[in-house]
Amino acid sequence: MTVRRIGVLLTNLGTPDAPETAAVKRYLRQFLSDRRVVEIPPIAWQPILRGIILNTRPAKSARAYREVWTEAGSPLAAITRAQAEALQAMFGDAVIVDWAMRYGNPPIAARIDALIAKGCDRILLAPLYPQYCAATTATANDDAFRALAALRFQPAVRTLPPWYDDPAYIAALAASVEQDLSALDFAPDLILASFHGMPQRTLELGDPYYHQCVETTRLLAAALGRPVEIAFQSRFGPAKWLEPATDATLEALPARGVRRVAVLCPGFVADCLETLEEIALRGRDGFLEAGGERFAYLACMNDNQFGMNLLHAVVRRQLEGWIGPS
Ligand SMILES: C=CC1=C(C)c2cc3[nH]c(cc4nc(cc5[nH]c(cc1n2)c(C)c5CCC(=O)O)C(CCC(=O)O)=C4C)c(C)c3C=C
Ligand SMILES: [Fe+2]
Ligand SMILES: [Fe+2]
């Protein structure tokens, strides 16, 4: 008899294999050649990418990666793997949980093949982004669909919807923030929610990402019963990106009388270069140099209890009809 099993494939953005210039260059070439990420026609973009960006940015980014690299590798890969293992333990034999990266390793196509080889005839594709963005969620699913396009015998497939306003997400975020705040030795004057940015033009073209970030922030503030300000980080290139910018916001806070700040990154399911280096290191420096007194970075939920219960809940819901009620 054919074994019929259910696979869950957690996907995240991707990361270099090593914090070295050559590995970062390989990763950035693949990442920044994705037309979902940089929406400039290749005939105009590729000469800039290959002629300028890939000759300058990899060495600088490699230095930044070295600041946060761990014994288990890149934080993003290590945490995503830990999340997959924890989710597997939570589901037991009911499903097979695996993980993959849109750029770099392990590739999505290879892990889909592996799930099929283990007998999965139903697969949930789960891009790990609470807020939908074409540059993240859609491109991860595109990549999976390209792999499926090559198959004669395809598994049945579902995709995980964004969970930016899910009460379980807001409650988990609020509980995690409350727990981290209670462990601080100071009371922040302000909580800042920093999301990854994207070009303003993509908002104008209809990407729902911005509105979903705003809604997450509004709901989090309501759950905490205190104001939470929003900002967007990681600007790339000369185009106008979503505002306000996190770095400029942090540098302007002391002049507004905010001397103690706590920053969280609710759009990231796992800590990574963007949170650990850009916010927890560079963001802190910018704030303190501008006259701030205390700075706390509140870590992502990662594979902690709040984060895993949340991931289990959002994934479990999409498996309805495939596995029986729990
Ligand atoms: C070039 C444009 C970029 C868009 C659009 C973009 C959207 C976007 N990215 C994330 C999540 C992550 N981005 C990460 C790193 C990263 N992002 C860009 C550029 C764009 N991102 C670059 C060039 C880099 C590489 C790092 C660098 O060289 O500075 C990461 C971290 C990866 C890691 O290895 O830790 C994440 C995660 C989201 C959610 C998003 C859309 C909203
Ligand atoms: Fe990014
Ligand atoms: Fe960054």
TrEMBL record:
GO cellular component terms, semicolon-separated: cytoplasm
Organism of origin: Sphingomonas sanxanigenens DSM 19645 = NX02
EC code(s) of this entry: 4.98.1.1
Record's protein name: Ferrochelatase
DNA damage is among the record's keywords: no
Source taxon at top rank: Bacteria
NCBIfam families, A to Z: hemH
UniProt keyword annotation of Iron present: yes
Function: Catalyzes the ferrous insertion into protoporphyrin IX.
GO biological process, one term: heme biosynthetic process
Localization per record: Cytoplasm
UniProt-listed Gene3D superfamilies: 3.40.50.1400
Gene (name only): hemH
CDD domains for this protein: Ferrochelatase_C, Ferrochelatase_N
Keywords attached to this entry: Cytoplasm, Heme biosynthesis, Iron, Lyase, Metal-binding, Porphyrin biosynthesis
